Amino acid sequence: MRQFRPWLLLIVLGVFASVSLGSAKASVRLCNETSHVLQVAAAYQQGVASKTEGWISVLPGACETGLADLPDNAQVFTYSKSDAAHAGKGLVFDGSERFCVGADSPRFTVEGRRDCRRRGYVEADFTPVAPSSGRQTVTFTEKSDFGRRRALMAGIQRLLSDLQYDIGAVDGFGGERTRDAAKAYKLRYGIRKDPKGRDLLAKLIQ
Questions:
Q1: Which end of the chain is more exposed for a tag (fewer CB within 10 A), N or C?
Q2: Over the stretch 63-90, which tens digit does the pLDDT of each residue have?
Q3: pLDDT tens readout for residues 74-132
Q4: What pTM, to 2 d.p., does this model score?
Q5: Secondary structure in 3-state letters for the chain
Q6: Nearest Cα to 146, choosing from 131, 136, 156, 135?
């Protein structure tokens, strides 16, 4: 899957991030307002100590938790990419701070950020999260600015389109063409109980 850097916004503080900084031993809330299923890695640096965790799968319109043991006053970084379920060009949210990530592992935890390849990991370029007061949240968005409610439907549309169903524009509204495409998908794969919303999204990435 080829990837590109979209016209994206991680709302609002910093070049790519919207953040509220939480208290000691807090966690990071990762929210997805794009039309893509995202695989996210989160890292922190506190003095000479650092830690990276991933991959955290965040569905469109959903939020997940990362770095559950985040120390007080630690600098947070994130890296995110579209899930392999998507066809064609994908989203990449990156920066210039290098940390280690698992190449093929669905879940990984890495202590330290040096000698990635020697330890069986690969390198990825993370973007720093700008600190402020309050709870820490990172929101991933794209140019269409779906918001969380429309992002769920946009994600369904995106995945149906990736499977070559004609849904028209990925707009997050879900008109007649989207409904017809969803019916055709369920009929083709013998899907019963007529899943909708988040349940349908989960089926589409299996």
A1: C
A2: 999 998 888 888 999 999 999 999 988 9
A3: 899 999 999 999 998 899 999 999 999 998 788 999 999 999 999 999 999 999 997 75
A4: 0.84
A5: CCEECCCCECCCCCCCCCCCCCCCCEEEEEEECCCCCEEEEEEEEECCEEEEEEEEEECCCCEEEEEEEECCCCEEEEEEEECCCCCCCEEEECCCEEEEECCCCCCEEEECCCCCHHHCCEEEEEEECCCCCCCCEEEEECCCCCHHHHHHHHHHHHHHHHCCCCCCCCCCCCCHHHHHHHHHHHHHCCCCCCCCHHHHHHHHCC
A6: 156
Can you tell me the distance from the alpha carbon of 149 to that of 58, in angstroms, rounded to the nearest whole number? Answer: 14
* Sheet with 137-140, side-by-side order of all strands: 63-70, 26-32, 137-140
Q: What does the alpha-carbon distance between residue 36 and residue 66 come to, in Å, rounded to a whole number? A: 19
